[in-house]
Specification:
This is Amylo-alpha-1,6-glucosidase. The chain is α+β, with helices and mostly antiparallel strands. It is 28% helix and 25% strand. Strand 11 and strand 12 form a beta hairpin.
């Protein structure tokens, strides 16, 4: 494979004082003045490797005082600084501009502006170092020298390389006007009175001796560079929302911008976008995260969902490998290309996830419902069948009818659901659950996968008998789930079954996912809905991952009491599916309020403190931002509040809005529905009008057969 992806495991995040720039498989973490400081997680990264670990500008051997940073695009920032006053002067006269563009490396345009009336002689240096540390090492703070390092320099060029385990990583720094020496570029400039001086530096990754073409070549205007063109096209192609609420408008705009920035492109199919999990450490195709993000953002860009499905299908497991946890039919957890990742995981693709495989089939079903490229989805049906075979053979190893996980070796993730921290699954008394573990939400995903496969059989294969068989499997699973997961003495569903098939009896948000997938018995849905909105679970900013009454509860933990926006978004969708519109609206408004408090950008997670305790949401210090499924959550929540669902195979567009008055009037144009583009308006009285529907699609307030809730069990 050529150009590749990146990913890291559990988030450790970066300081909110840092500037993060991202584009494809490159990202840069810097000080607000633009420097990359040694001994920190800062740096320029490409394909899992830090190709710059130090990048420090000095003017006349002095630091530049930062003034501000202007970052208008995800890949671009302008750092403004002031040179310190010259000897004998009280005021500085030299302004320093560092215009940085990140993409397949980095370009930095340097400008010195002399605001004085006398020419300024300047000695500008850039200290440059590259440790070629793996992203895992940097994120976990365990960087150490590895392999053989080399430095080469000449006129305007400084090159650094490292050889390790038969692989070479390098960087080439080019600055025509610079004098280059090991670890440093030197510029000498005389800036005229009221004049400027300019220079440009290109930083190019070198992988196994081959240079990666830069995204921002000097000979091409920045607005014509690939990232600029893709960003402009993304913004022009999607739906447009007009609402009376400025906060909602700002949040949706920020979500759209961040999702566009988190797109990466399949190196083997450059026109195929997929969504990475998040910045800075998750710029990778990541099975679970990418699928859930695609599902939530599907009304924004169906091609993003299709591309994600296509690329995951190409990496679907074919053999059994205990080191990478690959198994036939299994959808991968993450794709990585750093040298250390290959050594640690046994390969560049790691498969340690229990939920990506049923979620993959759910995604194909949703693509079918939205009428996205039916032929392309039909081509993926063999992959859907391999996924279903994995669910029933490898996912259910003991034949009890439930999908469970247990890592194959000590290298793998101990927990392989979305709460994948080591202590993410525990009982009400705080005991860590022992594997193999059958998670409640995973059974829901499998239930939904069966129903999705039935839809695909019926409408893409004309196989009514096959569809009936898949629906029967869904019904049987639902019955087994009710019998084993419902806790009558507690009044909620178990979070999981442990290795001894005992219920893990914690009150957790997982059962909200079970509402979303329709596996919950309608007769018990009210109890679930009320529990999710109880003071123990609902913080006022969203639904906690774990109730305050549980022994392991900690509002500052990663998975045991924090609030994850995407989790709350899924809960809201589940509540709406079962008709609890008031509950769903409370959750949706709470999360959107949190987004407003964060300036329109939802972080990966926030602390689970109650809104009555603190008037603003408390940030989780290591949360990734932007993060894909958090960015997609506002788009998803608007759909929830509209009560909107689409099923072109059944000819149904359902809209039952329950919107806050402040949002009205609301108009959405250019909504992709099959090959058509529709517009939807909700007026001040809550009346709905839809125009531009494709032929055969009718507006109704009745649920689609795909998502209709089965009647309560007898």
């Amino acid at each position: 494979m050529g150009e590749g992806w990146t990913f890291a495991g559990e988030a450790t995040g970066s300081s909110s004082d840092l500037v993060t720039l991202i584009e494809g498989s490159s990202f840069c973490l810097s000080e607000r003045g633009g420097d990359l400081v040694a001994g920190t997680p800062q740096g320029l990264f490409h394909r899992d490797t830090r190709i710059l670990s130090v990048w420090q500008l000095r003017l006349d051997d002095e630091e530049v005082d930062p003034l501000t940073v202007i970052a208008q695009e995800p890949y671009e920032a302008l750092f403004l600084g002031r040179a310190r006053p010259r000897p004998g002067r009280s005021e500085a006269t030299v302004l320093v501009e560092r215009h940085r563009f990140v993409g397949a490396g980095m370009r930095e345009d340097l400008v010195l502006r002399n605001l004085g009336n006398e020419a300024a002689a300047c000695h500008l240096t850039l200290r440059v170092e590259a440790d070629f540390a793996d992203l895992f090492e940097v994120k976990e703070g365990r960087v150490q020298p590895r392999g053989q390092y080399g430095v080469d320099y000449g006129d305007g060029v400084l090159a650094m390389t490292r050889q390790w385990h038969g692989q070479s990583r390098g960087v080439r720094v080019v600055a025509e006007d610079a004098v280059c020496s090991p670890g440093q570029l030197t510029f000498r400039a005389v800036v005229p009175p009221r004049g400027t001086w300019r220079a440009s530096v290109l930083v190019t990754p070198v992988i196994d001796g081959e240079e990666t073409p830069t995204s921002f070549p000097l000979e091409r205007p920045v607005e014509q560079a690939g990232p600029s063109v893709r960003t402009s096209a993304w913004r022009q192609s999607g739906p447009r929302v007009r609402t009376a609420d400025e906060s909602l408008s700002h949040t949706l705009g920020r979500s759209c911008q961040d999702l566009g920035a988190l797109r990466i492109f399949d190196p083997e199919r450059p026109d195929t976008p997929v969504v990475a999990a998040g910045a800075p450490w998750f710029m990778a195709l990541f099975g679970r995260d990418s699928i859930l993000t695609s599902l939530m953002a599907l009304p924004l860009d169906p091609q993003l969902a299709l591309g994600t499905a296509q690329v995951l299908a190409r990496h679907q497991g074919t053999v059994t490998d205990p080191v990478t946890e690959e198994e036939p039919g299994k959808i991968p957890h993450e794709l990585r290309f750093g040298v250390e990742a290959s050594l640690a995981l046994g390969g560049t693709v790691y498969y340690g996830t229990v939920d990506a495989t049923p979620l993959f089939v759910m995604l194909l079903g949703e693509l079918c419902r939205w009428g996205v490229s039916p032929e392309a989805v039909r081509e993926l049906l063999p992959h859907a069948d391999r996924a279903m075979a994995w669910i029933e053979k490898y996912g259910d190893r003991d034949g009890d009818g439930f999908v469970e996980y247990r890592r194959s070796t000590d290298r793998g993730l101990a927990n392989q659901g979305w709460k994948d921290s080591w202590d993410g699954v525990n009982s009400a008394d705080g005991r860590i659950a022992e594997t193999p573990i059958a998670l409640a939400e995973v059974q829901g995903y499998v239930h939904a996968a069966y129903r999705a496969r039935a839809l695909l059989a019926e409408h893409l294969e004309n196989d009514a008998a096959g569809a009936a068989r898949w629906r029967q499997r869904a019904r049987l699973l639902r019955e087994r789930f009710e019998a084993r997961f419902w806790l009558p003495d507690r009044g909620w569903y178990a979070e999981a079954l442990d290795g001894d098939k005992r219920p893990v009896d914690a009150l957790a948000s997982n059962m909200g996912h079970c509402l979303w997938t329709g596996v919950v018995d309608a007769g018990r849905a009210r109890a679930v809905a009320d529990r999710l909105l109880s003071p123990e679970m609902f913080s006022g900013w969203g639904v906690r991952t774990l109730a305050t009454t549980m022994a392991a509860y900690n509002p500052m933990s990663y998975h045991n009491g924090s609030v994850w926006p995407h989790d709350s978004g899924i809960v809201a969708a589940g509540l709406m599916r079962y008709g609890f519109t008031g509950h769903a609206r409370r959750v949706a408004e709470a999360v959107l309020d949190a987004a407003a408090a964060f300036g329109g950008r939802l972080p990966e997670l926030l602390c689970g403190f109650d809104r009555a305790e603190y008037a603003r949401p408390v940030p989780y210090p290591a949360a990734c931002s932007p993060q894909a499924w958090a960015s997609a959550t506002p788009v998803h929540l608007l759909r929830v509040l509209l009560g909107a669902e689409v099923c072109l195979p059944h000819g149904v567009l359902r809209v039952r809005p329950d919107l806050p008055d402040a949002f009205l009037p609301l108009r959405i144009t250019d909504i992709p529905l099959g090959t058509a583009r529709a517009s939807l308006t909700v007026d001040l009285g809550g009346r709905v009008e839809v125009t531009g529907l494709p032929s055969g699609l009718r507006l109704t307030d009745e649920p689609c057969p795909c998502t209709a809730v089965d009647p309560p069990a007898a």
